[in-house]
Design brief:
- The chain has 246 residues and is mainly α.
- It has three domains: 40 residues; 96 residues, no CATH class; 81 residues, no CATH class.
- The protein contains nine helices and no strands.
- The longest helix has 34 residues.
Amino acid sequence: MLEPLQGSCSTMLTLVSSPAGYGKENAMKVLKMLCVTAAAVLLLPLGARAGEGEFDTEKMLSDLEKRLAVSKAELEKLKPVLESKSRELKDAINESVDQGFAELESMSKDLEAASEKAGKDLEAALNSDQVKELQAYLSSLDKEALEEVKKELIAEMESLLELSEKQVKELEPILREQLDEMSKLLSRFAKDSGKAWDEFRKEYGKIAEKTRSRLEKALDPAQLEKLEKRMEETREKIYKKLFPGK
């Protein structure tokens, strides 16, 4: 990850001359400081927000121009709907990442309903085959968004625990499984508002303990402490989400 940055920093430092009134030594100090700062930025958690390049409207338009075989004028009619879809996908990803957990089933249903609506909104501009192709394309984007949420949340946990490359390979499947189990638990309790917090806490505790027991052999004490703290914080966030006002 840092090799290209290190290379560019080395190049800049090599090319430093002696600017008038400044001096080569001072110029090199500034450039070194900039390189260190840039490296620190690259080491921050990468899963904070859905990037501007993800689910980009122009890319969607380019994809659909080929798949639907439509003219530029017809393509322009799709743009408002796709802009809305782009915002929807990014917002769904960002919401899950910001809250630190994902209600994947609920998210999937919401995205699916929005994709069906988008197809209906464009029925006047497209023929029936094109509408089916459009909905299939939007459905594929929905699946990509769900997978992106998992990747972002797992990347955030990996960054929090400062996992080594070896640990990442070993523990990522466990973190992914834990994310799926937690999502299913959330869906069950979201559907049944009559379920009590004590019941949820018990079920959550089982998942947390299972995850901890599977991870503890590969984590050092400091990492394990961070993991337990994050799980406790997540439990409190879920409590506020599922049991507002209590």
